[in-house]
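I'll show a typical protein example:
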Amino acid sequence: MKEQSDDYIRGRGAQKNVHNRFFAESYHMEDEFLNYCHSEGDNPDDNKTQFLEVYPKTIVNKVESPDVGMAHSMNSYQGCEHGCIYCYARNSHEYWGYSAGLDFERKILVKKNAPELLTEKLQNKNWKAQTIVMSGNTDCYQPAEKKFGITRKCLEVFLRYKHPVGIITKNALIMRDADLLQELAKDNLVGVNVSITSLSEKTRALVEPRTATIKKRLETVKALSEKGIPVNVMLAPIIPGINSHEILPLAKAASDAGALSIAHTIVRLNGAIAEIFTDWIHKAMPDRAEKVLNHIKACHDGKLNDSRWGQRMRGEGEFAEQVSAQMRLARRKFFEGKSFPGMNYDLYEEMRDGQYRLF
């Protein structure tokens, strides 16, 4: 594989900020300004991550998309320093007034009042227990969590109210909270989804630059499983020409580590992500850029952008069917006799006030 271009920003996914569709004007650094900075020894962009506090009025969101396997989600952070180049959540950063590109990775919005808002939600007399997924949009164990600890405080709330919670992450930091997860698992109140998209560290570092290593993630699956915490591994997304050849080895590694199930999606590049991904792959993998982009289009009726319910996650055409066939084979070969447990919705009614009702 040809080395990255000279202007490749290492340690980041997106290689530029793209125009926010809600803004009439856009911001660009002209070559004249950049040349001046270079001659003066100045750095026009320090590439540092900023943490910005925000104070939302609610934290639990109803998921309206019919092809997403969750009813409700919550996100303690907006933006994600992991920098996964394909991340569908990038577009949501535009609603906050930022770019879906580098801003998404470098301007992290922190919701410190998330535990209090979650408590209010679970105390609401009209709320009926349904699984709330942490990381429905951005990773609740991204690097910011080590600094702010919001996810752990939210898990303490879920445990106090005996309410079911799902987690999606690419970060081994989840092991910090194994004690809480074990307590939740005793009552079937938690399900963990660990995303593993490649067994190649070189690929991982390009596609998901600030995530935990593959070794760490597999160790996390094993450690959680050994503690009785159910784990599903997300082979997601499958990107043609990048990780599509790894489905069976990934499935075997997940099963060997103790995962109870696997799931997948085909990459889709909606909204600003198409421009971000296209720019990235020409800089990160210039020798295979057009081939990968054409394969992605072949999965989505000739387009990078696919918003059709039901089709957008699975794709269509010969390649998408090959992926689905490999997933079926992987389940038969490596997951026979395994199953992911259902959630317990019965205990919450007894604990709505944060303590067992005696009468």
The first strand starts at residue 50 and ends at 53. The domain at 44-337 is CATH 3.20.20.70 (TIM Barrel). The mean pLDDT is 91.
